[in-house]
Amino acid sequence: MEEKLSQQSRSDLKEPVSRLSSNLQSTFTQRHLHFDRFFRELLDNAEKSLHDMFVRTYGQMYMKNAELFKRFFQQLRRYYAQGGAAVNLDAMLSDFWAELLERMFRLVNVQYEFSDDYMECVSRHTEQLRPFGDVPRKLRLQLTRAFIAARTFTRGLALMSDVVNKVSTVSASPSCVRAAMKMMYCPYCSGQVALKPCQNYCLNVLRGCLANQADLDFEWNNFLDAMLSLADRLEGPFNFESVMDPIDVKISDAIMNMQENSMQVSQKVFQGCGQPKPSKAFRTSRSIKETGFTGRFRPYSPDARPTTAAGTSLDRLVTDVKKKLKHAKKFWSTLPDTVCVGDRIAIGDECWNGTAKSRYESVVMNSGLANQLSNPDVEVDITKPDMVIRRQIVILKEMTTWLKAAHSGNDISFENEEDGSGEESGSGCDSQSCGPDTDIYFSTPAPNNKPKVRPVHTDEKTNGAARSGVASLLLPLLCLLLVFLETHWR
User: Fold this and answer.
1) Which among 135, 130, 107, 106 is positioned nearest to 118, based on CA atoms?
2) 323 Cβ contact list (under 8 Å, min separation 6)
3) Partner of 182 at 20 to 30 A CA spacing, among 100, 216, 224, 411?
4) Are 247 and 300 in contact (CB under 8 A)?
5) Distance between CA 442 and CA 310 in Å, rounded?
6) Span of 55-59, 275-279, 386-390 with lowest mean pLDDT
7) Of the candidates 293, 250, 299, 285, which has an alpha carbon nearest to the alpha carbon of residue 59?
8) How far is 98 from 104, CA to CA, in rounded Å?
């Protein structure tokens, strides 16, 4: 009988905490999916927009060099997914502009032949020549800040779900289960089945049971503050959408700048790298028109641009997630206050105080492991913190450092990281309650995860009455034993 009550007490204690944790986990699993899908679709849209514009504007000259731009977007996707450990963004952008210069230089000087050594010389002088004007410098700064902010923010959202998931696996200690059993089932001894525990009594039991979880709060709140601060950046100077949406126009501006200044650029190259040899294949001035670069930029129509990624905008996503982040503050330290309400407790004198139906007189403990030394209702060993939770505190602290670095526009490397995986990234929710919540942005279909039902084996009717009688005798004996043990422990 005692074992059954112990198991029931453990279940009763776990249920409200698991439900609250699962709701939090589900909320940020969904937000992570929304942001990640939005950023990836922006990249896809930007590539499609550039391709469509360049086909119209530059025709065959673009089609012959389309792989350069395809590779450019592939590298951007890799950087978003894996960070600086996979792609050096500065080097990638430098290589892109150098190769674009090489290809354009050949096109605008089709009457000459250029060896590989000569083109190497041209590439070495890209920064001095500034053939694309100020576009490469500005775009590098914008892309770096926007990508660092976007990828770090989505990693932060994934980490939240992962932390909640891991903390939810921490089981209650034996002393916690005993305290919960005494609080919830000892009134049954005197036949007061409907008697609820006093609110302050419930708070002391839950603060003792959830002492380790409450210690998450400090780093959890620091992490949330860093997420909110980075969210402000996403709305302002590090706005991923405002960088990616017009990237086709920016690159085209750079190309047109090179075309308009091709004579001056060519003269500077000839002075620095030497006069090239005339091309043997070059025959008439007409060949320049047929083989040279003659594309002219055409102003784009805003109506022709692709629709906003994922059916929403970054501003709407950020506004929504900021509300959720603020609401998640102090989640762990206020869990007891959230659980000890409503029909779980009774207020005033008409409640169970642990020994009788009367007012609860003991002082309510503060949250946290160190404050449970004198908890009158739960025996808590404050010298043995839970190591799973301590590990999550370290992870939160490390992620906060990364978020602050991203806020300053600094690159971060995530070690052993792959697209959509890694210890820090997390995959979201493992529990069945983590279905998609109601959302104004996406109509994401709920996953078809049917809950597993464990069959309950009931006793035969012939044994039911006998067992019931034994149970009624054991309840008073068990309660007397709990009271005796409580006195002995203290």
Assistant:
1) 106
2) none
3) 216
4) no
5) 8
6) 275-279
7) 293
8) 10
pLDDT tens digits for range 75-107: 999 999 988 889 999 999 999 999 999 999 998
Q: For 54-68, 202-216, 466-480, which range has the lowest pLDDT when averaged over its residues?
A: 466-480
Mean pLDDT of 289-302: 44
Whole-number Å distance between alpha carbons of 395 and 364 = 31
CB atoms within 10 A of CB 467: 11
> Cα-Cα-Cα-Cα dihedral of 122, 128, 134, 137, to 10°?
90
Q: For the whole model, what pTM was predicted?
A: 0.78
3-class secondary structure per residue, the chain: CHHHHHHHHHHHHHHHHHHHHHHHHHHHHHHHHHHHHHHHHHHHHHHHHHHHHHHHHHCHHHHCCHHHHHHHHHHHHHHHHHHHHCCCHHHHHHHHHHHHHHHHHHHHCCCEECCHHHHHHHHHCHHHHCCCCCHHHHHHHHHHHHHHHHHHHHHHHHHHHHHHHHHCCCCCCHHHHHHHHHHHHHHHHHCCCCCCEEHHHHHHHHHHHCHHHHCCHHHHHHHHHHHHHHHHHHHCCCCHHHHHCCHHHHHHHHHHHHHHCHHHHHHHHHHHHCCCEECCCCCCCHHHHHHCCCCCCCCCCHHHCCCCHHHCCHHHHHHHHHHHHHHCCCCCCCHHHHHCCHHHCECCCCCECCCCECCCCCCCCCCCHHHHCCCCCCCCCCCCCCHHHHHHHHHHHHHHHHHHHHHCCCCCCCCCCCCCCCCCCCCCCCCCCCCCCCCCCCCCCCCCCCCCCCCCCCCCHHHHHHHHHHHHHHHHHHHHHHHHHHHHHC
Rg (CA), the chain: 33
pLDDT digits (tens, 9 = 90+) for 400-430: 999 999 999 997 755 435 444 333 333 334 4
Which pLDDT belongs to residue 292?
46
Across 60-73, average pLDDT: 95
- Residue where the block lists tokens 């960070």: 83
Report which residue type is found at 351.
Answer: C
Q: At residue 451, does pLDDT exceed 80?
A: no
Q: Say how many residues make up the chain.
A: 490
- Model confidence at 169, pLDDT cuts 50, 70, 90, reads confident
Amino acid at 395: I
Distance CA 171, CA 169 (A): 6
- The fraction of the chain above a pLDDT of 70, given in percent, is 77
Sign of the torsion formed by the C-alpha atoms of 242, 91, 66 and 137: positive
Place of tokens 């206050």: 337
